Amino acid sequence: xxxxxxxxxxxxxxxxxxxxxxxxxxxxxxxxxxxxxxxxxxxxxxxxxxxxxxxxxxxxxxxxxxxxxxxxxxxxxxxxxxxxxxxxxxxxxxxxxxxxxxxxxxxxxxxxxxxxxxxxxxxxxxxxxxxxxxxxxxxxxxxxxxxxxxxxxxxxxxxxxxxxxxxxxxxxxxxxxxxxxxxxxxxxxxxxxxxxxxxxxxxxxxxxxxxxxxxxxxxxxxxxxxxxxxxxxxxxxxxxxxxxxxxxxxxxxxxxxxxxxxxxxxxxxxxxxxxxxxxxxxxxxxxxxxxxxxxxxxxxxxxxxxxxxxxxxxxxxxxxxxxxxxxxxxxxxxxxxxxxxxx
Length: 343
Description:
Blueprint: E1 10-16, H1 23-31, E2 38-44, H2 51-56, E3 63-67, H3 74-84, E4 89-92, E5 98-99, H4 103-113, E6 119-127, E7 133-137, H5 151-161, E8 172-174, H6 175-181, H7 193-202, E9 207-218, H8 224-231, H9 238-246, H10 257-277, H11 281-290, H12 294-301, H13 304-322, H14 329-340
Parallel strand pairs: 1-2, 1-4, 2-3, 6-9
Antiparallel strand pairs: 4-8, 5-9, 6-7, 6-8
Helix pairs in contact: 10-11, 10-13, 11-13, 12-13, 13-14
């Protein structure tokens, strides 16, 4: 008997819509995994480009391609993948990311080492549309010494840092966990369904985050999430999720209130920049002023990452109120992006 067939089957699910630009590169990276006992379930959500034709050009018996009769939306397509997956271990991979050859092998090893966990994540390189490396998403330092993370570990880190260290397209979760906690919620914004699901998961199961960059996470300007992040004019939805926990006494997070307020103030600066780009100067002034407080300044002096974000707010303040810009507009926004970094 082939030894690979004695290993657990992993369902690699790839929901896709109009993914012709990157789907070949993504599929190549999945097919070339060192862990071979996988099914590759691709559900096309009524693409209008050549996505389906590109997928059909692959000659690999592990590929199972389904094409929806109508576009059912991003979230429902995710849920359909989970429902139709044949294995206990389910990866929801993105159709434009590139996966290191050992990601599945290393994540499965984590499940075997820590059978109590419900999901495994990894760190990631960030790449642009050309494949150029433009940064990374890494596990924050205060969590690196913990092989397994529970709800309290993660939500406290979220409140201080934002949900910036859980890379959703790196996730492999158990199907039994999905059946227990429920699938992605189609009734909330598609930009926060991941955070919502992971918090529900963490309320019942610990997770592991492998502190290795095992995928190349593409920042693609045609992505809805990219456009949402840099053009939205309202508070991001993940605050609605965190509000649910921080203000509920049963989660015992009252000691995190100041940290949470500082996180919101940092976000006001992001919104100020978006309003400035939209030429809403009065609102930009209101938000940048709202982003600064004495507590934030004192706390940020003691924390390098927070200090960079504080500088970002101060530089924006000078520009919005006084038009102070010692470099070109293009260079100014480049500096702003480097200072905010985490966004």
